[in-house]
Design goal:
This protein is α+β, with helices and mostly antiparallel strands and about 90 residues long. It has helices spanning about 15-25, 25-30, 60-70, and strands at about 1-10, 35-40, 50-55, 75-80. The protein has a single domain, classed as Alpha-Beta Plaits (2-Layer Sandwich). The protein has a four-stranded antiparallel β-sheet with strand order 2-3-1-4, covered by helices on one side.
């Protein structure tokens, strides 16, 4: 499994509660594409998010997002870096 990042720009400001409800409502899409949500960062104005997933690849996150009607700007795979940890 890969660590996948999805960058999203939202038309309307969202709260953590709205994002959590959307995640619950679209859980079947994530499961169908073997995507597991890890965490989401939301901008202070509520219009941008960075979502972290564990998935087979970036395409799985793109497909699940499209099926769920969750637009994205970019989706890419990443390596996790934690300061002070060995490579």
């Amino acid at each position: 499994m890969e660590h996948v990042i999805a960058e999203r720009e939202l038309a309307e400001p969202a709260s953590f509660e709205k994002l959590e409800a959307a995640l619950r409502a679209n859980q079947a899409c994530l499961v169908a594409h073997r995507v597991r949500h890890l965490r989401t960062y939301i901008s202070l104005d509520g219009k941008r998010t960075i979502c972290e997933y564990e998935a087979p690849d970036a395409e799985a996150v793109r497909s699940a997002s499209q099926r769920a009607g969750m637009p994205y700007e970019r989706v890419w795979t990443a390596r996790v870096f934690v300061s002070g940890e060995p490579k």
